[in-house]
Specification:
By secondary structure, the chain is an all-alpha fold. Helix content is about 70%, strand content about 0%. Helix 5 packs antiparallel against helix 6 and helix 5 runs antiparallel to helix 8.
Length: about 160
C-alpha cells in the first residue's frame, strides 16, 4: 500500500517541521517509521524492510516548509496536522531542554497561520495535546504515537 497524495503531503510537512531545528532524534525517526511502515506495506517482512528503508531515506530528504506552505492545506486533516506538529516539536526536545527550540517554534507559528484555524480551535488543540502528554505520563512521543496510529488507521 502506498501513501495517498494527502498522506504524502502530510508526511512532508511533518518531516519539515521535525527538521526545523536541524536535527531529528532517533526516537522521532523510529516513531514515525514504525507507525508508517505497517500501514503502507503488506505483512511480508522483505517488503516492509524495503519500505522502512525508503521512508527512512525520504525522511532525510529536504522538504522546504516555506515551499510546502505555498500549497493549500489539506482540507480534512488540518486539526490533526496541527496536533501532530505540536506533539512532534515537543518530542524533539532533549531532556535538558525546558523550552521549545526557537526554530521549531517559528516553524510551528508559520504552520498555524497556514492552517488558518480559528484561534480558539488552535488553543483547544494545544490544550488537548498537552492533556495527551499528561495522559501518557509526560511522554510526548507516546502521545504522538497514539495519534499517528489513529490517523493512519492503525488504532
Amino acid at each position: 500500500m502506498k501513501l495517498t497524495p494527502e498522506q504524502e503531503f502530510v508526511f512532508q510537512v511533518l518531516a519539515a517541521v521535525a527538521w526545523a531545528d536541524e536535527r531529528l532524534n532517533p526516537e522521532e525517526i523510529r516513531l514515525l517509521l514504525d507507525q508508517l511502515v505497517p500501514a503502507f506495506s503488506p505483512p511480508d517482512s522483505h517488503q516492509q524492510d524495503e519500505l522502512w528503508s525508503e521512508l527512512y531515506d525520504r525522511l532525510f530528504a529536504y522538504y522546504d516548509l516555506d515551499t510546502l506552505l505555498q500549497q493549500p492545506p489539506p482540507p480534512h486533516d488540518r486539526e490533526w496536522l496541527l496536533r501532530l506538529s505540536y506533539l512532534l516539536i515537543q518530542a524533539g526536545q532533549t531532556p535538558t531542554e525546558t523550552a521549545i527550540v526557537p526554530a521549531e517554534k517559528q516553524a510551528y507559528r508559520r504552520l498555524v497561520e497556514w492552517l488558518a484555524l480559528p484561534p480558539e480551535t488552535v488553543a483547544q488543540i494545544e490544550q488537548a495535546a498537552q492533556a495527551d502528554v499528561v495522559l501518557h505520563q509526560g511522554q510526548p512521543l507516546a502521545a504522538l504515537r497514539a495519534h499517528l496510529q489513529e490517523f493512519f488507521g492503525l488504532a
